[in-house]
Amino acid sequence: MILDILYKDSTQNKAVKNKANEGIKRSLLKTISWRVIGTLDTVLISYIVTGGIDKALAIGGVELISKMILYFFHERAWNKINIGK
């Protein structure tokens, strides 16, 4: 009986995972939240290396836009790959 329940849960989870494709909205929200974290890290590192907040913010600004675009397309491409789903 317990094994039947575990097997049923296991097969249902696999079916759900196979159908679970992330939408563009979710990919976009993940892109933005990750880039905010990454950009804060870049600005901090840039400030430590350059010693100037203006340079650190300039580097962080360029990095924010470029990496957000790259991550979004990377995420969408991986959404089409079935490995691990």
Walkthrough of the structure:
The chain is an all-alpha fold. It has one domain (24-85). The protein is 85% helix and 0% strand. The chain has 3 helices and no strands. α2 packs antiparallel against α3 (53-79).
Structural descriptors:
85% helix; elongated
Q: Which structural class should the secondary elements be placed in?
A: mainly alpha
Shape: elongated
> Count of DSSP E strands?
0
- What's the overall average pLDDT, rounded? 82
- Report how far apart the termini are: 28 Å
Low-confidence stretches: none
In this structure, how is the largest beta sheet organized? Answer: none
Radius of gyration: 20 Å
* Portion in beta strands: under 5%
Task: Classify the helix fraction into a percent range.
Answer: over 70%
Overall tally of domains: 1
Query: In DSSP terms, counting alpha (H) and pi (I) runs of 4 or more, how many helices?
Result: 3
Furnish the topology, listing elements before pairings.
Layout: H1 2-19, H2 24-50, H3 53-79
Helix pairs in contact: 2-3
How would you summarize this macromolecular structure in one to three sentences?
The chain has 85 residues and is mostly helical.
